[in-house]
Amino acid sequence: MSFIDNVSNKLNLLFKQLLIVILYIGLTLLLSSLFLNLLKSNNFYITNLTYLLIDLIILIVFLLIFRKTIIPSFEDFKKNKGEYFNKYLKYWLIGLIIMVVSNGIISTFIGMPSNEAGNREILMDLPIYSLLSMIIISPIIEELMTRVILKDAFKHQIFYIVLSGLIFGLLHMMVNQSALEFFYLIPYSALGMAFAKMYYDSNNVWVNIFFHSFHNFICIFIIFIGWFL
Q1: Rounded mean pLDDT of 83-104?
Q2: Overall average pLDDT of the 46-72 stretch
Q3: 157, 165 in Cβ contact below 8 A?
Q4: Distance (Å, rounded) from C-alpha 101 to C-alpha 114?
Q5: Cα 96 to Cα 36: distance, rounded to the nearest angstrom
């Protein structure tokens, strides 16, 4: 492949990556608008199920888009899940440690990030939706959105891991109070880079999805423990 063809291919993949992010944001806004009345319902179950329906629709769209990646990868993951867990657990632990330490330092000066506060509020108000979304649906969507196309575009390991991690971090930012909250890009991106490293080495997106889901489960479990103590 010539230099020009290589550059052209990378630009096409980056354009696809941009479209995927826009699609995710656009679908979220569109579906939220279409189901606005149901989302504002005072009925606990209707509200939970409507939010869940929106996430499921987005999930189905992403599964269709990435079907050629996820189907064979899932079969491979089922056969080798024990090996994958033992091999990549250390990456999650490293990302978790960096995330916890940096988050603790930043929160000392700035306070709890808006994203975390928002997730806790949603978890309390919409527990059915939150549990299913955070543990199952969101990890699949977010990993497909931030890993697969970028790896095809960038073969350089460090560049890919940093870029994928930063995009992951930015998608988790909710800067509502102060621009200083952009410092929380550090802990979010650290975890994102750990997931990106997993995908770069394994070339199996279900490895990331599993550890992402496992991470969210642990976080929710800790939050519940804190509420009941």
Answers
A1: 95
A2: 95
A3: no
A4: 18
A5: 36
pTM of the model: 0.91
Got the DSSP string for 163-179? Answer: HHHHHHHHHT---SS-G
Q: Helix crossing, 67-110 with 205-228: angle to 10°?
A: 40
Tokens of 30: 């569109």
Q: Which amino acid is at 186?
A: I
H or E element that contains 115: helix 114-125
pLDDT band at 178 (very low <50, low <70, confident <90, very high): low
Domain interval for residue 124:
3-228
Count of structural domains within the chain:
1
**Torsion on CA atoms 170, 174, 178, 183, rounded to nearest 10:** -30
Q: Is the separation of the CB atoms in 59 and 141 below 8 Å?
A: yes
> In the chain, helix, strand, coil percent, each to 5?
90, 0, 10
pLDDT > 80? residue 45: yes
Summary count for the chain: helices (H), strands (E): 11, 0
Token pair in block for residue 98: 């960096």
The answer for residues whose C-beta is within 8 angstroms of residue 224's C-beta and 6 or more apart is: none
pLDDT digits (tens, 9 = 90+) for 112-160: 777 777 778 888 889 999 999 999 999 999 999 999 988 888 878 899 9
Is residue 191 within 8 A of residue 99, CB to CB? The reply is: yes
The amino acid sitting at 214 is: F
CA-based diameter of the chain, in Å? Answer: 62
pLDDT for 182 equals: 84
Contact (CB, 8 A) for 110 and 183: yes
